[in-house]
Design brief:
Order of helices and strands of chain A: HHEEHEEEE
Strand content of chain A: 35-45%
Number of strands of chain A: 6
Oligomer: homotrimer
Structural class of chain A: alpha+beta
Chain lengths: 147, 147, 147
């Protein structure tokens, strides 16, 4: 159980809005299929763990390739996905780095269709600052349906 | 593709919470059917573009009339709508004005019924400050099912 | 109709992120079944009103017992619930105390199943600070399907 407490005194408050803004940009890039720009919101050596993959995805090139593939499949199916991050539980870890445990939803809508709730997940990120910008260094996503 | 980047340095952070609070009030007024109070969160000459309308709705009177009509229909049907704005991507544009691109969900629940996801949308707003208060000057909503 | 207005000038902005972080911790504790830790985010004498209960739940012991019971039922059913608070409408009431009116969603996902929207609610809280920490002193939840 990785729920943080007592973060009010850790200086997280100053960065909470910045982290919210970061995720908004990050997810809008993802959902619009901007593969390279989205990959650039991770560090060069980032790892992304998913429950359906035996090994984590590593590095920007592999991350961008995965988004291009998924986005092409969705476009072919005439479907839009919207990723929502929420209930951001942020903890400062060291020097301008943050652990975030949040909930993640994916909504799916087909052209002419009825919107549906596609996934409920938990996302745990390590965010670090590189050249002034927040980037994801490590991500681990768990899916509630596979828990 | 209208995803913003590099906003961390634009002073948006100071206003991010205020914008979140603004949308909370704004949507609670809408969903409670407070037509005039809701219309007052737009500028006098505001425009509101919807994919199902050939022309934008213009001005507070027309906006309030639209809400009164919708709210009466929902009340007759015994249904409540809840508008959620999230993943707020905020960019400062000039002097205390903001462009916001965010996701919008509408949840619908009938008395005695099962809640359902009614709409997934993207909302783009221009917010300006008038007499100290943020107001919507332009809104464009797109629906994922009509994309 | 309990929608707040004109809060931009009340000093709420300084605490908006802290309140978001509070709810993130609070709901993650709830959904993970951490009954005592969750109950400790209420004041000793807190009241929690639900539309399905004739009397409010009072005090940490009763709150923790309710969560233990619910969590055991969900575990037996192989189901995970995720509580989302959003659209936080925050108003300062006196000395470092806050009234929050927000929307609340509950998503439910069974192991191997399809995620579903379980509840749409409105939550009204009075938050107070005790020994430096925000705590819930009063909570009233209404369910849209029972409205």
């Amino acid at each position: 159980m990785l729920v943080h407490r007592d973060t009010a005194t850790t200086g997280v408050r100053d960065h909470y809005c910045e982290i919210q803004q970061f995720y908004a940009e990050h997810m809008q890039l993802l959902d619009s299929g901007a593969a390279e720009e989205w990959a650039a919101t991770f560090t060069e050596d980032a790892t992304f763990r998913l429950p359906t993959l035996a090994e984590p995805v590593r590095g920007r090139q592999a991350l961008a390739a995965a988004v291009r593939r998924t986005h092409a499949e969705l476009a072919a199916a005439g479907e839009v996905h919207r990723h929502w991050h929420g209930m951001l539980n942020v903890r400062a870890i060291g020097d301008d780095a943050y652990h975030v445990r949040c909930y993640a939803l994916v909504f799916a809508t087909a052209r002419g269709g009825t919107p549906r709730l596609h996934r409920t997940c938990v996302c745990e990120d390590v965010l670090v600052r590189v050249d002034g910008k927040l980037l994801v260094r490590e991500r681990t996503v768990t899916r509630d349906d596979l828990a």
